[in-house]
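User: I'll paste a sequence; please echo it back and then give the predicted structure.

Assistant: Echoing your sequence first, then the prediction.
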Amino acid sequence: MKIINGIGASEGIQIGKIYKYEVTELSIIKKDIIDIDKELAKLEVSLDKSMNEIEVIRCNTLENMGEDAAAIFSAHLEILKDPELIDGIKNLIVADKVNAEYAVDTITKQFLSIFEAMDNEYIRERAADIKDVAKRMIEHILGVQSQGLDSLFEPVIILAKDLTPSDTASLNKHYVMGFITEIGGRTSHSAIMARTMQIPAVTGASNVYEELETGDRVILNGITGEIILHPTEDAIHSYKERVQQFIEDKKKLQEFKNFKSKTRDGISFDIAANIGCPEDIDQVLEVGADGIGLFRTEFLYMGREKFPTEEEQFSAYKTVLEKMEQRPVVIRTLDIGGDKELDYYQMPKELNPFLGNRAIRLCLNEPEIFKVQIRALLRASVYGNLHIMLPMIATIDEFRSVRNEIHKIEKELISEGVQVNPEYKLGIMIEIPSAALSASVFAKEVDFFSIGTNDLIQYTFAADRMNEKVSYLYQPFHPSLLRLVNMVVDAAHKEKKWVGMCGEMGGDTKALPLLLGLELDEISMSAPTVLKVRSLASKISKIDAKVLLEESLMKENQEQVLELVEDFLTNIED
């Protein structure tokens, strides 16, 4: 028995036999050709056949998996119509007098290298679309028929180096128990489609492909990302019990999808979800989150060659606001700098970039960049319940400067005849100790606070959270941090303003009793965590959580607080 760890891309546990998917290797050799027209004709035929096939897959996917999954193949059709790509291939055939398959391979690899060099994981994984389309075109040029995954006749767990979106769409749910790939992450198309199809999946499992053969037995754990190779009978027996427990737990959690988030003693609060792009909304709606607690807009700026236009941003914000109907949507303005850079925007080198010209500071120094985003946000405000959140605010003067700039832009829009919803909210992210300590001052002027625990912990303990040597100082349960958060909540509530939490601590179920004791109005987290937190909250009395918090605030260190919390949760579970 051996365990290999990958990324839990789609929840679920399966015990079954492996079907090793081997992709036909295409032989692509550069050939000098004389008949250019013949090669161009081969290319045209392959384009037509590829388009027809993809259209069939798109229609089948639309029928079986819905619009979002089908959109992947609409994107494939757009790739085949991309003049930059297709003209590039044709030009290479004509200029260098080379064979069509070589030209397709060469030009698509140039596109792939651009995508794969992106820092943004989501954009990087879109390279799979180009690979998928290029492979299909080359197969048609060469007259090669691929091995299919749609002809399986017994239940198996697919093992592949990688699965293209077309591969995933062709999976027969009757026989595919799950899949394992060496390549890909949680945002790869195969992972997204696995979640849509509710097939357990583990991606990014290095070196697993050569360890297994068709017929080998494995345990696939899509929750933890574990793959157990050649499991013993004891392990199989143990996992069968876990499978049953998982099924029962999942059924129970679904009961909370449409429930109001509240404690055992009936105190309501909001459980929201964090997103990075409009495509994340569907998962948020699936779990019935009470709102969006953090829309990280920097992802709209990453993986591109230039800043997104006002229209592009407006479309993204409008989509999210409309889909969330009137539920609150907290959209954070551009937060770059530190470890988040843009390829097309050269930021000056700084000795301490995390303490330098980043987030709102950069926006104040580059008002034209900021203005485009604010115009897009204010225009979108009429489509839902917009909350604009400013990151890295350190002083009240800084906030006032930004607010004045936003009001100026709002007046310009109105003078242009553009409608703006005057009910939009303007708040700040509490992630710098100076802002937390001045919360009573800010609370008189802002509409809301959202506590960003990742940076607040980093700056409170003066320890780089990415530095392994000081990572022990990342202490979300330390009494000093709890006191700081408590101070912010008290200041907000004194002025009747709501306060949320959007950092990683918000999605930590172990922290939930303390967060309920702190009386946060909203807690935001990744969408898959929403139902677990809502379920656990329904078992916790706010009165008990308050007592736990008071005891925790009196402790000396994180270990003592954790001990209290673990005892508290044990008693809850009992």
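The first helix runs from residue 36 to 65. The chain has a mean pLDDT of 89.
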